[in-house]
Amino acid sequence: MVPCLSKPRAMFPATPSPLGTFVLVLILCIVGFYTVNQPHSFPPSFTSHNASYFRHMFLSSSSNSTIASYLRDLTQHPHLAGTKLGSDTARYVLNHFRDLGLQTHTAKYEALLSYPLHSSLSAHFSDGSCSEFLLGEMVQTNQADPDVVPPYHAYSPSGSAYAKAAFVNYGRDEDYRALGMLGVNVSGCIVMARKGGGLTRGAVVEKAEAYGAVAVLIYADRDGFGKGFERGHVLRGIGDPLTPGWAGVDGGESLDLEDSEVLKRFPKIPSMPLSTEIAETILHSLVGTELPQEWKSSLGSNVRLTHVGPGPTMLNFTYQGEKKVATIENVFAVIKGSEESDRFVLLGNHRDAWTYGAVDPSSGTAALLDIARRFSLLLHSGWTPRRTVILCSWDAEEFGMIGSTEWVEQNLVNLGSQAVAYLNVDCAVQGPGFFAGATPQLDDLILEVTEKVKDPDAEGAVLYENWAADGNSNILRLSGLDSDFAPFVQHAGVPSVDLYYGKDFPVYHTAFDSYDWMTQYGDPFFQRHVAVAGVWGLLALHLADDPILPFNYHSYVDQLQAYRNRLRNFLDQSISLQPLTSSIQDFASAVKEFDEELNAARLQEAVDCFVHSKRRALNDRLMLAEKGFLDPHGLRERNWFKHLVFGPPSDHESKMDFFPGVADSIAWSATSSEKEGRAAIRHEIWKVARAIKKAASALRGEFM
Length: 704
Ligand SMILES: [Zn+2]
Description:
By secondary structure, this protein is of the alpha/beta class. The chain folds into four domains: 17-44; 51-102 and 337-545, Zn peptidases (Aminopeptidase, 3-Layer(aba) Sandwich), CATH 3.40.630.10; 113-324, Glucose Oxidase, domain 1 (3-Layer(bba) Sandwich), CATH 3.50.30.30; 554-700, Transcription Elongation Factor S-II, Chain A (Up-down Bundle). The chain has helices at residues 18-35, 51-60, 64-74, 84-99, 173-181, 201-210, 260-263, 276-284, 293-296, 358-380, 402-410, 412-418, 443-450, 463-467, 485-491, 515-522, 527-545, 554-568, 578-604, 612-625, 660-669, 674-700; strands spanning 103-124, 130-132, 153-154, 159-167, 190-194, 215-219, 232-233, 271-274, 289-290, 307-309, 314-335, 340-350, 387-394, 419-429, 434-438, 496-501. Strands 1, 2, 4, 5, 6, 8, 11, 12, 13, 14, 15 and 16 form a twelve-stranded mixed β-sheet that branches. A two-stranded parallel sheet has the order 3-7. A hairpin with a 5-residue loop joins strand 1 (103-124) and strand 2. The longest helix is centred in the C-terminal third of the chain and has 27 residues, at 578-604. It is globular, with a radius of gyration of 26 Å. It starts with 17 loop residues before the first helix and ends with a helix. It binds zinc ion. Zinc ion binds at residues 350, 360-361, 397, 426-427.
């Protein structure tokens, strides 16, 4: 899918001097002063039920200087999950919610995390020279911060290897095939892969393992930040490996580390991230086969590379780590609804970071803390939401969405029947350009809300104008395993949103993801933070306060039709898509009938005058329709994934980012007999068709 337009604008000042920093703080204070309007500036005609009054108050109480101060606090220290500094950050968030007078609670889990103990890498070059590489970033006056975890891949096995180095481009099947055509066999080698071919880190390791490599080193081309190492996990699937499908509560069931269900989640060969600088030194020394022509054009400017090896450079690599059960903690603030306290609108962001995490995830945490502050202001001015609002601060996302996944697994029944929507923000600001992802019934609401929020990069414009006014907002879908929306959508079927500014920032998961980077490059005036918080909070206010849920299933119909048409490209004509076509038609009729019913009811009386039970019934149908897309048995051979429209394909290189069960059957059919393959694909198509019928039936609210 093509991401939405991003318009980089010159917002990057040079490195600030102390005077520059002072001026910046002064500007933030002044801008902050002007953006914090007091409630009394509103017309006195409001009533406490006037939701639009409170939305205005929410927007006008934004403060970039306040968000900046939260971010500065959050990034004082690294806050890796399962560590003392990680739990200090949980206390900071909890105290912030408490100080605002919000009701709070925490949910702790015992989860299997992974930390490095020792690692080393040296290269022995063909001229007899040898380099021992320094594995870590010098962040302060040529010293590494001892609180920053050394570069590693969480859940990598411990191991050592002394072998020839070989370059495998992005580490995809097609890359290994290209090498094979040139007669290059990487079996027994330490392979070096670069990031960017669309594979997850874990998938790169899995492929290397399959092609016989003994270890994998992964680097990213980072303009200007070539000394950074990209930490990350290499776990397969998501959630705590010891409690697959249920929550890892203290004293609860936990699988043995040697259980086959657990072992299949881990890679078998060791891996580690490398900085661009170290990667360049090694890659530049490779001889052997010349680089395939098609790889050359996409090489980053930083890496000079002419040959793929293997060797003659020999690498001596050791990684020792420990997997260890640690306590993780989700923190919540709850604002109880007045009329429908058992209907929930959830705003979530993870709190744990690989390092200081200014972008990932503290920019999102700072926005969440500011939303809490502004909601508290609304509460003091007489607002009580119609539905309950919960602010969620997740732990251990970086280890595979563990905090949110355990919580979703623990609360599956209540979430399934009572959660209206989940609104996720991970990295709120990575740079310029607004992005939104959503389940389709929320598209219209996102568009509406962006008409109310100022564009931080265009004077006098609202976000909508540069992002969506040309009718091309490109709202992304939530099939990936990128952040905490995954368990909500793909396991629980909760309508969800994901928001962020910018993408592919150069300090991702490195020790340079700091407050300084944010103030120099990411968002010097914190206006993009204000914009994300504005969209995020307004979405929540609509979902919490609108008498009828602001869901529009027409977008879902359009999306399903588009997927059906795209599916045609993956199949030959002998496989009929008729079951899908007719169920989408049925769903479209259900959506139309729902609109007619709602409009007819509105003609008779205002929505606010509907008897409670009538509104409730309509809203329940809107909320539960998404559940129709779930299959309680889940996908074949990976039954944690329940959603039949959105979810990742198990084949890492599949281009099908929708109908994951169908995508799996297509991949599987390549290795089975033609007859069995077709039968499997037909079955999966029928399953999606039946799911769409179930969604239609939920929207109608009638038995068939
Ligand atoms: Zn993150």
